[in-house]
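Escalated from tier 1: calcium ion holo job.
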Amino acid sequence: MSNAKILLVEDEPSLIETLDYSLRRQGYEVITATDGRKALGVARQQQPDLIVLDVMLPGLDGFEVCRILRQEMNVPIIMLTARTEEVDKVVGLEVGADDYLTKPFSMRELLARVKAMLRRVRIDREEAATNTATAPNLVTERMVFGDLVIDLSRREVTTQGSVHHLKPKEFDLLVFLARNRGIVLSRDLILERVWGWEFDGGSRTVDVHVRWLREKIEAEPSEPQRIITVRSIGYRFEG
Ligand code: CA
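Tier 2 regenerated the structure:
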């Protein structure tokens, strides 16, 4: 994937220049946007393979851009920030960033992260292609992770061919996790997306539903391989 298309969102001309040059030298195609709104437009139009997204941008900031794009596309996002507080990192993960670099960073470090991320995406795509090959008629309506099959049109979940009866929210939660495979999702974000803003049941609700889900889809619920607990943040779906 050396000719992958990378969208670079940054408002600092000297950094754009440096990053653009370094990425192109690696053989990547680079497109740039200098503020949040332009970034959204370019991302929608160009469908990049990866986005390098600065947090501090005029207009919409990087967190907002990330949050919006996450709802629309599955593109991996590496966030850049000048701030070092841990809270930024958590917010970055909450809005769905895949990786995180604090300025100043070395170009070598950024290139390594870009390369690793693109490799991961390529592996995922190859797996997806292999998986969909076994279900050619229902490509868009099923999500397949090994022996776990989520049938979106029938709202049905099976492992090793046996059907599990999921409550509506369990199903919604599983689909949300699966659509964000590999991404750390905070309990609050999960609550917001699966239960909605008005819900005030508290984040333990998420834990309870995860436990129920694990009992159904994990081979060994006490040692989950699919829905992983990320300490003090939330959960990550591994597939
Ligand atoms: Ca900036």
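The pocket of calcium ion is lined by residues 10-12, 54, 56-57 (CB under 6 Å).
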